[in-house]
Amino acid sequence: MSNAIFRLILLVVLFGLSFASYAAANIEVDTPTVASIKHSMQSRHAQLEPHYSGGAVGFTRDGLIAMRDANAVPLASRGSVNALISAENMDRNALYREIARANNHPEWEADIRATFSQRWIKLAKSGWWYQVSGGSWAQK
Amino acid sequence: MKNNFFYISLLTLMSFLLSACVTINIYFPAAAAEKAADKIIEEVWQLEDSEETERKTE
């Protein structure tokens, strides 16, 4: 009788073990909020892309974007580009916060931001600008 | 009786392993995060799509 109970406990522990290892190796990104942020960023990207290649907008070290060279944008459209940048940064901040929250580790937000910051730059097309340590800009 | 002792020690060992795994989960899984970030960036920038269109136009 006690043998059967021990077997049962062993089984439960083993299941717990496999679930814990699974949870440790994965990052949850499939939430409705992440999907809607992604969609919003995706539709904005077509408007931002010319400014990335034109050098007006660059990638910062904290996973956001910033106006790098305002002179690359005609005076008339400078306001709309600034609006695009702040909308994009709001989405990016929300994305990092939401991923941390979805994984039940809000304190991971800074790590997620740092990871994204590196990956945006790594996957950026050649000719796009990014910020290096010290705040100066470099071109891919 | 001897059999019970075996199971108790096995159970103790498994509990230690389990707690070790839970501890690991407290640390940020950098490799998994990098993969997840790449997936999201590719979707936002539609990198795979542009490759497909390039292939189609070839």
Structure commentary:
The complex is a heterodimer of chains A (140) and B (58). Chain A is 61% helix and 9% strand. Chain A is an alpha+beta fold. A four-stranded mixed sheet of chain A has the order 2-1-3-4. Chain A is elongated. The relative contact order of chain A is 0.14. Chain B has 58 residues and is mostly helical. Helices cover 86% and strands 0% of the residues of chain B. Chain B contains three helices and no strands. Chain B has helices at 2-24, 30-45, 47-57. Chain B starts with a helix and ends with a helix. Mean pLDDT of chain B is 77; it is low at 50-58. Classes of the chains: A alpha+beta (140), B mainly alpha (58). The A-B interface holds A 2-3, 6-7, 9-10, 13-14, 16-17, 20-21, 23-27, 29, 34, 38, 41-42, 45, 95, 99, 105, 108, 111-112, 115-116, 118-120, 123 and B 3-4, 7-8, 10-11, 14-15, 17-18, 21-22, 24-25, 28-30, 32-47.
Largest interface: A-B, 35 and 33 residues
Order of helices and strands of chain A: HHEEHHEE
Q: Whole-number average pLDDT of chain B?
A: 77
Please state the overall shape of chain A, judged from the principal axes of the Cα atoms.
elongated
Element-level helix/strand string of chain B? HHH
Please state the CA-atom Rg of chain A, rounded to the nearest Å. Answer: 22 Å
Main sheet record of chain B: none
Low-confidence stretches of chain A: none
Structural class of chain B: mainly alpha
Strand content of chain B: under 5%
The residue fraction in helices of chain A comes out at: 55-70%
Radius of gyration of chain B: 24 Å
By helix and strand content of chain A, what is the structural category? alpha+beta
Main β-sheet description of chain A: 4 strands, mixed
Number of strand elements of chain B: 0
End-to-end distance of chain B, in Å?
Answer: 74 Å
User: How many β-strand runs of chain A?
Assistant: 4
